[in-house]
Write a structure and sequence with these properties.
With 394 residues, the protein is of the alpha/beta class. It has two domains: 167 residues, Rossmann fold, CATH 3.40.50.1950; 213 residues, CoaB-like (Rossmann fold), CATH 3.40.50. Helices cover 34% and strands 23% of the residues. The chain has 13 helices and 20 strands. The strands form five sheets. It has an eight-stranded mixed β-sheet, with helices on both faces. Strand 19 and strand 20 form a beta hairpin. Helix 1 crosses helix 8, helix 4 crosses helix 7 and helix 8 packs parallel to helix 13.
C-alpha cells in the first residue's frame, strides 16, 4: 500500500510504483486531497493497474469501511512523500481523512519517507513527532540532504524511489551480520601518467556503495575502501578514500586481519605506468610510448593470505564467455563466491543505475535479474548471508 501526501515530491511516487510493479509487487494507492493537487490519481491507476482511493467515506466500498479493507489487504504500508502535517497526525493518532485513518487501522509494518523544507524538517516539534513514530514501530526512510524545490539546501529531500524500494524489499534481517566486520572495495582506481592525465576505467562505484548500504542494514560493521567517485557514502561506515591501485592494496591489506567478510567490488586497474612524468606530457611527437607494469592482485592476496576472512566475494565484469571466466576466477583465486556481469552492452554494467548478476559458488549458481543496483545489492547480501551461514554450519 502506497500513501501519498501533498508535496512536490509526489512526482517521485510514480517512479516508486513503477519499480514496485517491476518486482511483481501488487500496489494500491491512497492519496490525500492535497496530493491530488500535485499529481493526478489517473497516473497511479495506470501505473498500479488498481483503482486509487481518495475518500474516507466511499459509498462504493461494500461495507463503506475503505480504511479497514485497505488495512487488511496491505502486507506493508509506505507513505511517500510524508509531509510534516501528516506525520504530526500519525504520531498523535489523529484520523480525519482516509490515509490517517488507514494508518491508525494498520497492523502491518509501516514505512514513512518524509519530504519537506529543511527548516520544517529541523523544527523541534517535527523531530519529536519522528521520535514518537519510531517508538510506535514506524520505519523512517531518509530524508536526504540536497537542493530543494524552494531553492534552499539541506535535509528534507525525499529519498529516491530506488532506495525506498531497497528498504521495502530487504531480505536479510538487521540482526544477521551483528558483530560481523565487512570490508568492501568500490569504484575505479586512477594510475597517473603525469600531473594532469591518468589511466582509469568506467566504474561509477554504485554497486560497491549499494552493497555497503545493504550490509549496514544487515547489522554489519562496514569498512568501504573507495576509489574516486561522486557518490556520498552512507552514514555509520568507515570510509577510506584512495586513488591508485597501490593505495587500495595498502588500505585493504592493512585492515584485512580484523575482517570476517571481504567483497571486492572495485574495478582496480590491471596495469599502471612504471614511471609517471613529473611535468605535463606535451603533444609533440606523433607517437608516445608508455611502459606499464602489472598492479598487485588484491583479491588473490587476500584469498591466499594468512589472515584470510571467513567469506570472500569477487566480481567479474566480462564482454564474452561470462560463465567460463567467472568460474575460472572463482577456482583460481580460491573464492567463496563470485558475482559476474556483462559489460559493453546496452543495459547494465558500468555507469548504469541497473545491473544483473550471475552468481557462482562451489556447489551452484543463481541468476539475479536486471534491476536497480540498490535492490540488486540487497539480493546479493542476502545470498552471501545464506551461503556464509551454510559454510559455518557444515
Amino acid at each position: 500500500m502506497l500513501g501519498i501526501c501533498g508535496g512536490i515530491a509526489a512526482y517521485k511516487s510514480a517512479e516508486l510504483v513503477r519499480l514496485l510493479r517491476k518486482q511483481d509487487i501488487e500496489v494500491r494507492v491512497v492519496m490525500t486531497q492535497a496530493a491530488m493537487q500535485f499529481i493526478s490519481p489517473l497516473t497511479f491507476q495506470a501505473l498500479s493497474a488498481n483503482p486509487v482511493s481518495t475518500n474516507l467515506l466511499d459509498t462504493e466500498e461494500e461495507n463503506a469501511m475503505g480504511h479497514i479493507n485497505l488495512a487488511r489487504w496491505a502486507d506493508k504500508i509506505i507513505i511517500a512523500p510524508a509531509t510534516a502535517n501528516s506525520m504530526a497526525k500519525f504520531s498523535l493518532g489523529l484520523a480525519d481523512d482516509l490515509l490517517s485513518t488507514l494508518y491508525l487501522a494498520a497492523t502491518c509494518p509501516v514505512y514513512i519517507a518524509p519530504a519537506m523544507n529543511q527548516a520544517m524538517w529541523n523544527k523541534a516539534i517535527t523531530q519529536e513527532h519522528i521520535q514518537r513514530l519510531e517508538t510506535q514501530g514506524v520505519h523512517i526512510i531518509g530524508p536526504e540532504e540536497g537542493e530543494q524545490a524552494c531553492g534552499e539546501t539541506g535535509g528534507g529531500r525525499m529519498s529516491e524511489p530506488a532506495k525506498i524500494l531497497a528498504v521495502l524489499t530487504r531480505q536479510v534481517t538487521p540482526k544477521f551480520f551483528k558483530n560481523i566486520n565487512i570490508l568492501i572495495t568500490a569504484g575505479p582506481t586512477r594510475e597517473a601518467l603525469d600531473p594532469v592525465r591518468y589511466i582509469s576505467n568506467r566504474s561509477s562505484g554504485k554497486m560497491g556503495y549499494a552493497l555497503a548500504e545493504a550490509a549496514l542494514y544487515a547489522g554489519a560493521n562496514v569498512t568501504l575502501v573507495s576509489g574516486p567517485v561522486t557518490i556520498t557514502a552512507p552514514d555509520k561506515l568507515n570510509l577510506v578514500a584512495v586513488e591508485t591501485a597501490e593505495q587500495m592494496y595498502q588500505a585493504v591489506i592493512s585492515r584485512i586481519p580484523e575482517q570476517h567478510v571481504f567483497i571486492a567490488a572495485a574495478a582496480v586497474a590491471d596495469y599502471s605506468p612504471i614511471t609517471a612524468s613529473k611535468e605535463k606530457i606535451k603533444k609533440q611527437q606523433d607517437k608516445h610510448r608508455i611502459e606499464l607494469q602489472k598492479t598487485k592482485d588484491i583479491l588473490a592476496e587476500v584469498a591466499l593470505g594468512a589472515d584470510r576472512p571467513d567469506f570472500i566475494v569477487g566480481f567479474a565484469a566480462e564482454t564474452e564467455n561470462l560463465e567460463h571466466y567467472a568460474k575460472n576466477k572463482l577456482k583460481q583465486k580460491n573464492l567463496d563466491m563470485i558475482a559476474a556481469n556483462w559489460v559493453g552492452r546496452t543495459q547494465g554494467g558500468f555507469d548504469s543505475d541497473e545491473n544483473a548478476l550471475e552468481v557462482f559458488w562451489d556447489a551452484g549458481q543463481k541468476t539475479l535479474k536486471m534491476t536497480d543496483k540498490k535492490q540488486l545489492a540487497v539480493q546479493l547480501i542476502a545470498l552471501i548471508a545464506e551461503k556464509m551461514n551454510e559454510k559455518n554450519t557444515t
